Amino acid sequence: MQRRNILKAIAAGAAASGLSGQALAAAAAGKRDAVVTRLDAGRWAQATHDRIQAVIAQYGRGSRGYDGKRKPYAVFDWDNTCIMNDCEEALMLYQIEHLAYKLTPDEFAAVLRQGVPAGPFNKDYLNLDGKPVLLEDIAADVEADYRFLHAAYAGLAGSQTLDAVRQTEQFKDFRAKLYFMYVAICDSHPIEIGYKWIIYFYANMTPAELQKLAEASNDFNLGDALRKVRYESSRTLPGRAGVVATSHFHGIRISSEIANLMNTLRDNGIDVYVSTASIDDVVRVFAGLPKYGYGVPPENVIGLRLNMRDGRYTSQYRDGWHFNWGPGKTVGIRNELATKKGYGPILVAGDSDGDAWMLKDFADTRISLVVNRLKKGPIGELSQLAAGSRGQDKARYLLQGRDENTGNWQPQEETLKIGAADKKLLA
């Protein structure tokens, strides 16, 4: 009878606090070292799953040393870590397809050239005649296209429907050349130039307008096929740059394993943050809306930011705000989290060179999880460390493989690239 009453009391407290059935059992048994909620097996590589589970048990609320006033925390990159593909690049294509801008032609023309060095892009970015493409030439072509579309489309200033203007050569030219510019800028110049450039096109929107657009893009791309599409500019309107072609990897997929990991961490008293090289207001939509399953509070997202004027974005990067990529992600975590809390994250997850520094820079980190995209460079070096320590009890660097044809993770460290016949462990 006495034990039954104790269990009833525990159940009432658990109901109020949202604890799981495992938490009830642990509390009833008086096991302070029990894990509140276990990580689902999902499609985790076994050794990766087991190591994460061990760290949750060691540092979560069920551990003997847990201090609710000094809660441990985890930091996740977003694009290609928490989801398959990149939600901000997907948004750029969605914005182009829907001509979803709040820029006058003169404002658009200024943003096109903002912060981008004049002259040719690198040797890989030629037109279809094999000639170099210059920033000033392709910007002139895109500006002319936008002026036409702005005057024609009813959603901007004209009278035609979106379907009608999409059939024009100017729209075909605009889509291919604007996205070509983005890819060429990122590959020809420091990544900071391209990643800032893409968000300047949000100028004159309110955060609510941008987030509504981001949600629409997310939902469309979640329903789209994972496919690479080639875009070619207009042959009848070659303009100054000539005819160019580029491609985009369409489609986005949710990682149910990451969503479950985030929820499991929170159930175990470990806070969850996101550090992204996209503008934070776009990622807050995907990370926070309940329908996507991640449950990250908006204030827990650290990303790129713009200056605001009268409640709207400007086309100027936030004064004094770091560039949240590579070493800048470490700066963001230190300034916004570690310095204020007095300690670093116990778990960090990423997939690319932009994440390599935050994966290795904090002495408090027990797990650095690399979503395996078969990359070289700094992230490739960490992937090699992870591959070399597979299955070790105290491994810090862990690999997780995926199938890029489906967007799903695989229960192993190896990854299958889209269109490839065989899985690989390292690049």
Detailed description of the structure:
The protein has 427 residues and is an alpha/beta fold. The chain is 43% helix and 13% strand. Strands 7-6-1-10-11-12 form a six-stranded parallel sheet, with helices on both faces. Strands 2-5 form a two-stranded antiparallel sheet. Helix 15 links the parallel strand 11 and strand 12. The N and C termini lie far apart (62 Å).
What's the gist of this structure?
The chain is α/β, with parallel strands linked by helices.
Provide the β-strand percentage band.
Answer: 5-15%
Structural class: alpha/beta
What best-fitting shape do the alpha-carbon axes yield? globular
The main β sheet shows up as: 6 strands, parallel
Number of E strands: 12
Q: Give the rounded overall mean pLDDT.
A: 93
Helix content: 40-55%
- The termini sit apart by 62 Å
Number of helices: 15
Widest sheet: strand ordering = 7-6-1-10-11-12
Assembly state: single chain
Helix-strand blueprint:
Blueprint: H1 2-17, H2 21-29, H3 46-59, E1 73-76, E2 83-84, H4 87-97, H5 105-113, H6 135-152, H7 162-166, H8 169-188, H9 191-200, H10 207-223, E3 227-232, E4 245-250, E5 253-254, H11 256-267, E6 271-279, H12 280-288, E7 301-304, E8 306-309, E9 312-317, H13 327-341, E10 347-350, H14 353-360, E11 367-371, H15 377-388, E12 397-400
Parallel strand pairs: 1-6, 1-10, 6-7, 10-11, 11-12
Antiparallel strand pairs: 2-5, 3-4, 8-9
